[in-house]
Write a structure and sequence with these properties.
single chain, flat, about 60% helix, mainly alpha, about 80 residues
Length: about 80
Amino acid sequence: MINKLPLLTNLETKKILKKTIQANRVLAQLNGVAQIIPNQNILINSLVLLDFYSTLCYTTNNILPPPLYNVPTKECF
């Protein structure tokens, strides 16, 4: 069931704002690292492949996928 907008809960809690700041820092670091890669498509394509493998692992073995952007576990492959 899809909830209607606007949300009834307050998303601007202290905890969420702290996590948003932390996520912004991590994305800035990723952007800095990506700038030094000669071919940035390599990074993007590898993230897409890792997401695909984790989804494949879940659907074929009916186990929880590994956390996003981690190497697939031995149980999957």
